[in-house]
Amino acid sequence: MEKSGKRPNFLVIVADDLGFSDCSCFGSEIQTPNIDRLASEGLRFTDFHVAGACSPTRSMLLTGTDHHIAGLGQLSEYTRNSPAHQGKPGHEGYLNDKVVTLPQLLKDGGYFTIMSGKWHLGLKPEYSPHARGFEKSYALLPGCANHYGFEPRYNDHLPGFFETAVTALHMENSAYVPQSPPEPDFYSSDFYTSKLINYLETRTPDEKSRPFFAYLPFSAPHWPLQAPEASVKKYKGFYEDGPDALRLRRLESLKELGLVSSDVHPHLVVAPESTEWDSMTPDACAKSARSMEVYAGMVDRMDENIGRVLSSLEASGEAENTYMLFMSDNGAEGASIEAHPIMGDEVISHLEKYYDNSLDNIGRYNSFVWYGTRWAQAATAPCRLYKTFSTEGGIRVPLVLKIPGASKEEAEISHEFCTVMDLVPTILDLAGVEHPGTSYNGRPIAPLRGKSMIAYLSSREQIHSQDEVSGWEIAGSGAIRKGKYKITYVPAPKGPQRWELFDLQSDPGETKDLSQGLPEVMKEMLGYWERYKKEVGVVGLAGELGDVPLTVDEFEDTGKWTRFLAEGGIPVAS
Description:
It contains 19 helices and 17 strands. With 574 residues, the chain is of the alpha/beta class. Strands 1, 2, 3, 4, 5, 6, 7, 8, 9, 10 and 11 form an eleven-stranded mixed β-sheet that branches. A four-stranded antiparallel β-sheet has the order 14-15-16-17, with helices on one face. It has a two-stranded antiparallel sheet with strand order 12-13. The longest helix is centred in the middle third of the chain and has 35 residues, at 282-316. It is globular, with a radius of gyration of 22 Å. The termini are far apart. Belongs to the sulfatase family. Pfam families: Sulfatase. InterPro entries: Alkaline_phosphatase_core_sf, Sulfatase, Sulfatase_CS, Sulfatase_N.
């Protein structure tokens, strides 16, 4: 890695709920030639870790500290329905004043900072990207929305699940965008990419004289699964043999590419709420396969748009001085919402009334589907489970890093352990900007918890020593890792709701619990958990908080989202 006198640019691209093996350079049948191009001249990291959910990861990506400290201890959608977490420090639902963001520091250091895409770190102007360091921004504020900006005209009660899953609420700089969708041919991945390119290509002379930090966080391939038919039709018939067959193919591809060990023992699929493929009706199989085709189309379309950004940078001559990074924010989304014991029936009833989920219409603007737990575990194999769990399937994701000037001869697969918190100190080091430590503009802030990767990039020095401890917790599922050992806590019914001990070096699938055979190691790791829990402010694990099932009314938090939109002057369907 060579340094030039000119400070580098940065392009950070984030996919939403993309599984470990969903890109072709990570073993997928989905065509991602532009991500592959970055990988062919860069590094593919196989042991890169994030939080088990979107906004917690994004908070760590932008601050370099733990999400329990930064304000996103849980997804805000989770906290608002969990009395145990409400009002607790670090669970504000937006980036709090205890942190300073990467774009704030880069802007202070002379960088031009821009973003376009999903924010999910606060809904109000004072919590917006513009308020946290982005000079220009176009942001989807909630965690997801219809990718075409469509919202039905309701004539009855809106189930709470849909309150933050439909409305495409956007903000440009510090002002809400009054119309939804913002243009007639709106499609999320296309539009966010066009905005970012526009910000780059319309820079003033002053803006162009400065290096840039560009952040492109897609809302794809998060549900609802929707993509233009031109992107979907490429995958027609690819998934007719079901998720278990896909899982086996992906595993073989991962082995052939050297991304996992040839003798890896994958974790079994855990899907008590779903029906085995061979037991499903032909119509159900067809719709499920179609949903996966649409998912593939979303990933394909996202990659096509990444190619547009790369072409723009190449045309301007800036690609050769730009660090380019691609990652996912968590493991694949495995929720089977239709099987939820409280809201499942109401959600299905609402979908039947307001959407057209017939076979041929799946993926269109007025459809609303997800693909469920079995397809997700095809993408996270050989690892255990998926998003919202602190298992490897929930927190281990693809990372591709293209270093300026690197060639195909320098492409490499890296098995080095690293985390999303390491990116802030790495980018700051590369930019020549110092982190302020524990004080920023006269207020106390949390110090960095991540470690700079710059010594690894230049001379392959280890990023985290074998003695360092890393911790995770999301939705009551916890984990601690030190060296090759990891303890994992998986809530029932997807796990035993107790701590288990694994040797990730020989068992990355977390299949063999060693807690009984290695009691001293287990005791040591549990001590590290208590320390981590206290340091970052974990509220508790599943089963520790007097957990009781939420009632329908509690889950729905009736009307709060609609009232928020109305109070902000944002038109909503009625």
